[in-house]
């Protein structure tokens, strides 16, 4: 195995581009980076669609960021991944190739690429070690997303080996927190459960259905913990080796549903719908490399879910109050509407 080099990379005074700054991860990075005295650069999708190579090249040539967090991506839960297979492959490949190449061509000193635990083979030994990438078949429901992410990781690695670029890749586990997507069909499990339990509590419904059998085991990380880990690695880590970011602990979906229901205050029945896909049976990251690099998660699941639920309620409130807000500025309503519009367009 190649050595894991450590270097000091000070963010203070640097121009730092957060790609995907309005997303769940990007906005957590923006919150955390506010403490680094960096000069933060962002650009909205309406100004620069990161799938558009010419637009990306022009923006990078004009701004020349010294550091890049590549947290823009087409992201979604199991149904979105499995339904919008072409979009998940195309968007994520295009974003990764355009941004990594433009960063290299415009003198970027350091780039962090965001992969995902989905890149590991479906039946890889658990907990998932970084070196299990490309050792077996992927989970079919998210294969297009995983293939695009693996291509991004390989690009970062190739630019490092060929040009000496200081590009690193991190593999976050399942994330949750402020800025999550609460789309009824396309969200990840945490947002989906917060929304369903909340709506059942408010409407007085006596039963909530959880997708799948409830038996798969998953690991969940609060997104502000992720952002803290990323800043730590950006400042101290330089190596082609991937770094998993997680808590190192997993829980069954059934037990997790009980935690979310308790935090939300839903007291009705919880049943399971086995006709919905379970996805991979277990997904727990081996976080020993991250621990050796000096970082571990600090937010408990209960505390994190309580913070995420608070953020969900705040966003609903903000949404009700801002009648004249542009819909794309609103995660709760607009991300649903945008995705619904897209899925309608796909069906037509
Ligand atoms: N969420 C998780 O559980 C999880 C787990 C592991 C890894 N990750 C990785 O973490 C990264 C961020 O995920 P996230 O959860 O923050 O996703 P997210 O909330 O959906 O945010 C994605 C961001 O990317 C932007 N984006 C997407 N397509 C774009 C395009 N064509 N041009 C410009 N911007 C575009 C979005 O812009 P708009 O605001 O305009 O939509 C949004 O700001 C991704 O690489 C993802 O693979 C996430």
From TrEMBL:
<keyword id="KW-0560">Oxidoreductase</keyword>
<feature type="site" description="Important for catalytic activity">
    <location>
        <position position="118"/>
    </location>
</feature>
<feature type="binding site">
    <location>
        <begin position="20"/>
        <end position="26"/>
    </location>
    <ligand>
        <name>NADP(+)</name>
    </ligand>
</feature>
<feature type="site" description="Important for catalytic activity">
    <location>
        <position position="116"/>
    </location>
</feature>
<keyword id="KW-0413">Isomerase</keyword>
<keyword id="KW-0521">NADP</keyword>
<dbReference type="InterPro" id="IPR001509">
    <property type="entry name" value="Epimerase_deHydtase"/>
</dbReference>
<comment type="similarity">
    <text>Belongs to the NAD(P)-dependent epimerase/dehydratase family. Fucose synthase subfamily.</text>
</comment>
<dbReference type="GO" id="GO:0016853">
    <property type="term" value="F:isomerase activity"/>
</dbReference>
<feature type="binding site">
    <location>
        <begin position="172"/>
        <end position="175"/>
    </location>
    <ligand>
        <name>NADP(+)</name>
    </ligand>
</feature>
<feature type="binding site">
    <location>
        <position position="188"/>
    </location>
    <ligand>
        <name>NADP(+)</name>
    </ligand>
</feature>
<feature type="binding site">
    <location>
        <position position="218"/>
    </location>
    <ligand>
        <name>substrate</name>
    </ligand>
</feature>
<comment type="function">
    <text>Catalyzes the two-step NADP-dependent conversion of GDP-4-dehydro-6-deoxy-D-mannose to GDP-fucose, involving an epimerase and a reductase reaction.</text>
</comment>
<feature type="domain" description="NAD-dependent epimerase/dehydratase">
    <location>
        <begin position="16"/>
        <end position="246"/>
    </location>
</feature>
<feature type="binding site">
    <location>
        <position position="278"/>
    </location>
    <ligand>
        <name>substrate</name>
    </ligand>
</feature>
<feature type="binding site">
    <location>
        <position position="211"/>
    </location>
    <ligand>
        <name>substrate</name>
    </ligand>
</feature>
<dbReference type="InterPro" id="IPR036291">
    <property type="entry name" value="NAD(P)-bd_dom_sf"/>
</dbReference>
<dbReference type="InterPro" id="IPR028614">
    <property type="entry name" value="GDP_fucose/colitose_synth"/>
</dbReference>
<dbReference type="GO" id="GO:0070401">
    <property type="term" value="F:NADP+ binding"/>
</dbReference>
<dbReference type="GO" id="GO:0042351">
    <property type="term" value="P:'de novo' GDP-L-fucose biosynthetic process"/>
</dbReference>
<dbReference type="GO" id="GO:0050577">
    <property type="term" value="F:GDP-L-fucose synthase activity"/>
</dbReference>
<dbReference type="Pfam" id="PF01370">
    <property type="entry name" value="Epimerase"/>
</dbReference>
<protein>
    <recommendedName>
        <fullName>GDP-L-fucose synthase</fullName>
        <ecNumber>1.1.1.271</ecNumber>
    </recommendedName>
</protein>
<feature type="binding site">
    <location>
        <position position="196"/>
    </location>
    <ligand>
        <name>substrate</name>
    </ligand>
</feature>
<keyword id="KW-0511">Multifunctional enzyme</keyword>
<feature type="binding site">
    <location>
        <position position="149"/>
    </location>
    <ligand>
        <name>NADP(+)</name>
    </ligand>
</feature>
<comment type="pathway">
    <text>Nucleotide-sugar biosynthesis; GDP-L-fucose biosynthesis via de novo pathway; GDP-L-fucose from GDP-alpha-D-mannose: step 2/2.</text>
</comment>
<feature type="active site" description="Proton donor/acceptor">
    <location>
        <position position="145"/>
    </location>
</feature>
């Amino acid at each position: 195995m190649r050595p894991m080099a450590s270097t000091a990379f000070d963010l203070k005074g640097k121009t730092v581009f957060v790609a995907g700054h309005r997303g769940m991860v990007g906005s957590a990075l923006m919150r955390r980076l506010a403490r680094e005295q960096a000069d933060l650069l962002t650009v909205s999708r309406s100004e620069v669609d990161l799938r558009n190579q010419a637009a990306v090249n022009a923006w990078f040539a004009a701004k020349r960021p010294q550091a890049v967090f590549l947290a823009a991506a087409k992201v979604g839960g199991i149904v979105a991944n499995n339904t919008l297979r072409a979009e998940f492959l195309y968007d994520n490949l295009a974003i990764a190739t355009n941004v990594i190449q433009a960063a290299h061509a415009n003198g970027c000193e350091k780039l962090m690429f965001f992969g995902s635990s989905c890149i590991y083979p479906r039946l890889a030994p658990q907990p998932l070690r970084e070196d299990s990438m490309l050792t077996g078949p992927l989970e079919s429901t998210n294969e297009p997303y995983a293939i695009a992410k693996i291509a991004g990781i390989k690009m970062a690695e190739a630019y490092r080996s060929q040009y000496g670029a200081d590009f690193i890749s991190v593999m976050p586990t399942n994330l949750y927190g402020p800025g999550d997507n609460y789309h009824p069909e396309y969200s990840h499990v945490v947002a989906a459960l917060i929304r369903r339990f909340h709506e059942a509590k408010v409407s007085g419904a006596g039963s909530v259905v959880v997708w799948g059998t409830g038996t798969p085991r998953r690991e969940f990380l609060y997104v502000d913990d992720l952002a803290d880990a990323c800043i730590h690695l950006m400042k101290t880590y330089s190596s082609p080796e991937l770094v998993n970011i997680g808590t190192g602990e997993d829980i069954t979906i059934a037990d997790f549903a009980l935690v979310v229901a308790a935090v939300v205050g839903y007291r009705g029945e919880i049943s399971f719908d086995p006709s919905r896909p379970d996805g991979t049976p277990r997904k727990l990251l081996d976080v020993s490399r991250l621990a050796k690099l000096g970082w571990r998660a600090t937010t408990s699941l209960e505390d994190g879910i309580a913070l995420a639920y608070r953020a969900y309620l705040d966003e609903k409130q903000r949404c009700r109050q801002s009648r004249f807000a542009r819909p794309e500025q609103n995660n709760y309503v607009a991300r649903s509407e945008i995705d619904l519009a897209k899925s309608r367009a796909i069906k037509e």
